[in-house]
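Notes for week 9. Today we move from apo structures to complexes. The key idea is that a small molecule is not decoration. When we ask for a structure prediction with calcium ion present, the ligand SMILES becomes part of the input, just like the chain. The input block below holds both the sequence and the ligand string. Read it once before you look at the output, and try to guess where the molecule might sit.
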Amino acid sequence: MCFILTWFIFVKDLINHSMKKSIQLVTLALLVFTSCSTLQLSGNPFSQLTMPSTEILDWERINEWQHSDIKSENFPGMSINKAYEELLYDKKGKSVVVAVIDTGIDITHEDLNESIWVNEDEIPDNGIDDDKNGFIDDVNGWNFLGNSTGDQYELIRLLKKGTDFENKNVAIEKYAEMIFKEGVKDSILQIKKNLASDLYFYENDVKQSKQLGYNARKTGDDPDDFSQRFYGNGNVMPKSDDELHGTHVAGIIAAARNNNLGMDGVSSTAKIMCLRAVPNEGDEYDKDIALSIRYAADNGAQIINMSFGKDFSPHSDKVREAIVYAETKGVLLINAAGNDGVNIDEVFSFPNDNFQNEPEVSSNLITIGAIGPVKNSLMIAPFSNYGNYNLDFFAPGALIYAPVPGNQYKALSGTSMAAPSVSGVAAIILSYYPKLSPKALKKVLMESVVQINYDIELGYDRIKTTMNSISKTGGIVNVYNALLYTSNHYKTLINL
Ligand SMILES: [Ca+2]
Ligand SMILES: [Ca+2]
Ligand SMILES: [Ca+2]
Ligand SMILES: [Ca+2]
């Protein structure tokens, strides 16, 4: 399921909160120099925000807020522009391949087409697997969904199979809630009676997906048979007008910077490998996700963005095996925490790097929550999931303006937007320090967050808490700090 929301939910909160104006801090000019081999940088990291701000939200600059400097500007941005201007202005970075596992991506978009990964060893549209990787005409990635658009939720697929599973009662309740909204009275009773058969006929595609007998999969494979690996096709474009999620996510990472079009992506060197595996409606299949991770790892991706998730995952072990495999190939995975406003240490969300709070199976997955454009107690987006064990840190993910198909742009909110913010930051670090392992890169991002050391209000009920209690690091990603941290600790990091 795509982690996306309509943006006005968040705006409502901002408007209701009174904010006063105060004085802006002044940015310090910093000295930058290079050495012969590894890039050495110097500057002053900014490690914590100790006081909430009372500044008024600057709506004029809202479309670029995620790039602003958390120390000197009015937004809790990732200090992207500051890093480019003060640390990287005369340095050329290497290109970094970032795989985006998502819905289709508009690779022809005016602000994105220069940033799409190209499989140089594959001749397009000749019906031949030129690079012999098992995928025919995979020029920009792969489409594991074939021609299908939406699909069912995993809980419906599980109930449909009639199999007994651990969370069956929870699944029944959720399904009952869903179809109750569609007008099915006594929905729990109905489901219990009719688990293996359809409740009644649904008319359109979206509603059909709630029918137990419906099968949206059009790829001809068995989604539970992981030995069937080559299905789908090489066309990674969106299949319907409302399939905009993947383009937005890719744009946040890699839309062309400073080209007077749309907006700036976080990374100027990222190349997007497109993996269409997340249905526009309903839940992704574990098999498509595991195979997408393996495709990315086998075909040169260094980072994988995963802006999706679900509550039920019948083959979560296979996905974790793929995550472990990706680590052996040097790949870092950035995972969105989800938009249910829940504690994911209690309500488990998939994919994840552990099973029910057991130790992590790998050191290459980071789970991200969303913040909005305010430096005060309401900075955690109210929809964002959280968790002291399972959520690593936060990143800008509300009111993020980015490309959508057809040369258009839109402001969207969700942890789906926070994850690619971090993928872009990771791409910047790798672009200048390409030898870092995923474990080292994760350490860099975790250690260099800006910590929030004042009380925050969590969720729509505004429960008073601290960033430390709701995440592992208690902070927000920051590329300026991360670059300096890498430069200062390189000798240790390179051995991780
Ligand atoms: Ca191929
Ligand atoms: Ca070919
Ligand atoms: Ca642009
Ligand atoms: Ca974890």
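Residues 415-432 form the longest helix (18 residues).
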